Amino acid sequence: MNRLIKKADTLIEALPYIRSFAGKSVVIKYGGNAMVKPELKEGFAEDVVLLKYVGLKPIIVHGGGPQINFMLDKLCIEARFLHGVRVTDEATMEIVEMVLGGKINKEIVSFLNQHGAKAVGLTGKDGQLLTTKPFNPKSLVHKYSGSKEILQPEDYGLVGEVSHVDTKLLDTLEDANFIPVIAPIGVDSKGKTYNINADLVAGSVAAAVQAEKLLVLSDVKGIRDAKNRHVSTLSRKDMERMVKKQVIREGMLPKVHACLTALQGGVQKAHIIDGRIPHAILLEIFTDKGIGTEIVA
Questions:
Q1: How would CATH label the architecture of 21-296?
Q2: For the chain, which residues make up each domain, given as ranges?
Q3: Taking the model in full, what pTM does it have?
């Protein structure tokens, strides 16, 4: 009986959050181990489907770094990164589009559908969803890290950043009760294809649809301070100061940039959470304490 009462208490704890967020969009960046381990993939699908059934409007933006690295390794192509961003030459771009836009995207769609959702896979090419321009290191490396290293867009190859998000297709899909699943591939005005960091796409999409929340799933518990202590809540200004002092750096930079983009665009809260924890999404959204780092405007 006590176990049943605890379950009821959990539902009651979630009720005010369900009431508050019903009808609102939540953008989820899906990546890391949560995309690899079968039990975590199962939990992710269950979480997203539950969000949909209680009235939220989830939009998924997925990565696929480990899967891309695995394929590059099989083809003897070196994987290179600069400040957490994948350097993408033409050969790498072909692999990225094949893995992200094909294999991974369709696997996620299929898994969500198996769990009772209606999901549709997209890339930024569909419906002119993501208009892209060459990645500008100043927007990430210089602005947020304080690095003085001189880098040019061509140092990153076919890496892009989002210049515009056209939400018409997303609105149409949500009105028809579909869950959009977006692979982070975009095109410029001339039709040239670019690889975009999934974190950065998630931040831009969240701002464009005026999401209630952005959730970034990672392989760490959240943000840590200079003494390596977990930080449960941060203001946007506090996080900017931590980046400038290089407390936050390298692979965490795109995640932080995504959160800042979302908050600056009108999103109420951004969250960096540990996707290795079963049902991490539900624990962060529907419980009083949460499990990751919450960043508020």
A1: 3-Layer(aba) Sandwich (3.40)
A2: 21-296
A3: 0.91
